[in-house]
Design a protein that fits this description.
The complex is a heterodimer of chains A (207) and B (472). Chain A has 207 residues and is of the alpha/beta class. Chain A has a single domain, classed as NagB/RpiA/CoA transferase-like (Rossmann fold, 3-Layer(aba) Sandwich), CATH 3.40.50.10420. Helices cover 27% and strands 22% of the residues of chain A. Chain A has a 6-stranded parallel sheet, covered by helices on one side. A 4-stranded mixed sheet of chain A has the order 8-5-6-9. In chain A, strands 10-11 form a two-stranded antiparallel sheet. In chain A, a hairpin with a 7-residue loop joins strand 10 and strand 11. The longest helix of chain A is centred in the first third of the chain and has 14 residues. Chain B is α/β, with parallel strands linked by helices and 472 residues long. In chain B, 51% of the residues lie in helices and 10% in strands. Chain B has a 6-stranded parallel sheet with strand order 1-10-7-4-2-3, sandwiched between helices. Chain B has a 4-stranded mixed sheet with strand order 8-5-6-9. Chain B starts with a helix and ends with a helix. Classes of the chains: A alpha/beta (207), B alpha/beta (472).
């Protein structure tokens, strides 16, 4: 087993002994600016649009989604707010799935994946998706379009605030993903193409 | 400089299409970086660099501590940590796991670390199918080439090259529209993702206090690699560990900006262990392979140790006047550009390509753009002096060898030996303890001078033992 020889080599090279505690680390650097909610929302919308996503505020999430989803198939997450807003009972929408294989098959064929976002980051236009019994990983990943609903009080100023609210995301989930715009690549001739593996369309409704 | 290095450089310089491709792509990435760190967008850029450097320095100085903390926390979340000293051990682990689980198909997301140990080739040699899923890496795998650039691996190809590669290797019509080429790759790879037994990723950061692996990407292929198959294996260099999840606030702001000029890459995945009870999807098994492969050799020297701070953003490549002319494939190993010029000699030994540390104008641009403030020009100078030292050592050895051959010949031929002794005795008597240096100043040159500065022979007596014996 390579473990002990490697750790031994490291200690010898650094002049450390086994079980020697670490020296004091540099203090954590987190800076949270004061940004009023209206400005956060404005920044969120600007950033997402700059990445060719769509973002807007709505007081009637069910109504806007009903219109967008007409004639489309969709998978919605098990987030309680989606049911509360009546989204999961719209026609063509499957929800409440707890079986991995079933969910994977649905996501592989659905036109749209609908999720709630746990948080959003205003300064970068990012969605924060935390995997849980309410939110699966593949809904925001396999379908060609992703619609995310963000309760407005969940919009944080940015990464520094997120890591203050959640100093260790591993305590609550096996997977936290920040999504900043639609899936993209520029691997051929530096030409930007969206939707290479993940959704090419991203639509954010701030509720 | 090796003949091969020289030839590759001349080939790259003589190809005007390639010159244009490198120059345009790196120029664009360079410009994007500059706009994204403009003072009105990121006023504390320099403070972030200072903090990133301090955190990396601290992590490397306490590396054993943080690796063990990382290991404990991965295990607390139900994952497993494996140490590997080289590529063979990485492959052995994957192969034995694949055998136990009856796995055949592996999907891979982009990882320089697995490139470094030729993991795909090793796995395919044993009958596993291992598919690269990053678009650029996928094209390279089909073409059997290695990455041209740390961040933009297929930078040297045009859409026409890609059309030919796809036509030949995927049996599809010759398609030159980039969007359609991307769609072809998407559909081929989508099947692979859904059928794969194992997903292998790299890692941009290992977080000690949460036992998490952080992976940064734009396409979504790394998310699929780590979410769709039942087994996720992350392969990472031991130097990737940082103490706290909260340190990401610094590193994430720097990495995407330095690489492509994005504020954040599209997907930042923070993964810790297999899926938890109740979570609907995600892997059932989670492994992190911690690779040494020469990294521990860089630790003893305080100056050169900082080469391990690198977060593989590629900014030094884009800004380097040498990389921008000679391109990625001129470099002798997977890591190209200024960072390649300092880590390759340290991983592989300076003799691997003695010309490498000299492939720089020492303009300092690489050090200036490095988000973790690695003093690349200084390390290049140190490596140059190492190359020179090893070359001189070699020359001295040859001279010494010749001297001893002559000596051996003289002492095994009695008449010559006697004659030599007589000649020696007839020369200047010396000053008692110093003889050779007193014979003639002409001897006081080159390696002989270095030798004489530390030692000399006593002058020989005027009559030799043989002479005295005969006259007894």
């Amino acid at each position: 087993m390579a473990r002990d020889p490697i750790l031994h080599r490291i200690r010898t090279a650094l002049g450390r002994s086994a079980e020697q505690p670490a020296s004091d680390p540099p203090p954590v650097r987190l800076r949270i600016p004061t940004v009023p909610m209206e400005a956060r929302i404005a920044s969120m919308i600007t950033r997402i649009e700059a990445l060719a996503g769509k973002a807007a505020e709505t007081a009637d999430p069910c109504g806007v989604l009903a219109e967008m989803l007409e004639g489309k198939t969709a998978v919605a997450s098990n987030a309680p707010c989606l049911a509360e807003w009546g989204i999961t009972s719209l026609p063509g929408i499957r929800s409440g799935i707890t079986d991995r294989e079933e969910l994977r098959a649905l996501c592989a064929t659905a036109d749209v994946g609908i999720t709630a976002a746990d948080y959003a980051l205003a300064d970068t236009g990012s969605l924060v998706m935390i995997s849980s019994p309410q939110e699966a990983r593949l809904i925001s990943l396999l379908p060609p379009a992703h619609i995310a609903l963000v309760p407005r009080d969940r919009i944080l100023t940015g990464l520094d605030e997120l890591l203050t609210v959640l100093p260790d995301p591993a305590r609550v989930t096996s997977s936290m993903v920040l999504i900043t715009g639609p899936s993209r690549t520029a691997d051929i001739e530096q030409i930007l193409v969206r939707g290479v593996h993940g959704p090419g369309q991203i639509i954010v409704w701030i509720v | 400089m090796s003949v091969e290095f020289d030839q590759k450089i001349h080939q790259a310089l003589a190809d005007p299409r390639l010159q244009l491709a490198i120059y345009t792509a790196t120029g664009r990435l360079k410009q994007h970086r500059i706009s994204s760190i403009a003072p009105d967008i990121l006023p504390d850029y320099q403070e972030l660099r200072t903090q990133a450097n301090a955190v990396k320095k601290h992590a490397i100085e306490n590396l054993d501590h943080y690796l063990q903390e990382f290991e404990r926390n991965v295990e607390a979340h139900g994952g497993k940590v494996i140490y590997a000293k080289d590529g063979e051990e990485v492959a052995d682990f994957v192969l034995s796991l694949a055998k136990e689980r009856g796995a055949h198909l592996i999907v891979k997301s982009k990882s320089m670390t697995t490139e470094e140990v030729d993991l795909n080739e090793r796995l395919e040699h044993h009958g596993l199918e291992s598919v690269e899923t990053d678009l650029g890496e996928y094209i390279l795998q089909l073409a059997h080439e290695r990455p041209y650039h740390i961040v933009a691996p297929a930078l040297h190809y045009t859409r026409y090259d890609v059309a030919n590669i796809f036509e030949k290797r995927l049996q599809v019509p010759n398609e030159t529209v980039i969007e359609k080429q991307t769609a072809i790759a998407r559909s081929v790879l989508r099947e692979k993702f859904l059928a794969a037994d194992i997903g292998i990723s790299g890692a941009n950061f290992l977080i000690a206090d949460s036992g998490a692996v952080v992976i940064i990407e734009n396409e979504g292929n790394a998310r699929l690699t780590t979410s769709a198959p039942r087994i996720h294996i992350a392969v990472a260099g031991i130097e990737k560990v940082i103490p706290r999840a909260q340190d990401l606030a610094v590193f994430l702001k720097l990495l995407a900006r330095s690489a492509t000029g994005q504020l954040l890459s599209v997907y930042t995945s923070f993964l810790s262990g297999p899926r938890r009870p109740g979570e609907i999807d995600g892997p059932d098994e989670f492994y992190v392979v911690l690779l040494d492969n020469g990294r521990t050799k860089l630790l003893p020297d305080r100056g050169k140790r900082q080469s391990l701070y690198c977060i593989r953003c590629g900014a030094c490549l884009n800004t380097c006047p040498v990389y921008r002319k000679i391109g990625g494939h001129s470099f002798p190993w997977v890591y190209s550009g200024p960072i390649g010029a300092i880590i390759t000699p340290q991983f592989k030994g300076v003799a691997h390509e003695p010309g490498l540390p000299f492939a720089s104008s020492l303009c300092g641009a690489c050090g200036e753009v490095c988000p973790v403030k690695i003093d690349i020009p200084k390390i290049l100078l140190d490596l140059r002096s190492e190359v020179k030292k090893s070359e001189t050592r070699e020359k001295q050895n040859r001279l010494e060898k010749l001297a001893f051959q002559v000596f051996a010949w003289v002492v095994t031929h009695p008449r010559i030996y006697e004659l030599a002794g007589r000649i020696a005795a007839s020369l200047a008597p010396g000053d008692g303890s110093r003889w050779i240096s007193s014979v003639t100043p002409a001897m006081n040159i080159g390696p002989v001078r270095a030798w004489l500065s530390q030692r000399d022979l006593p002058p020989p007596p005027s009559k030799s033992f043989r002479q005295m014996w005969r006259r007894r």
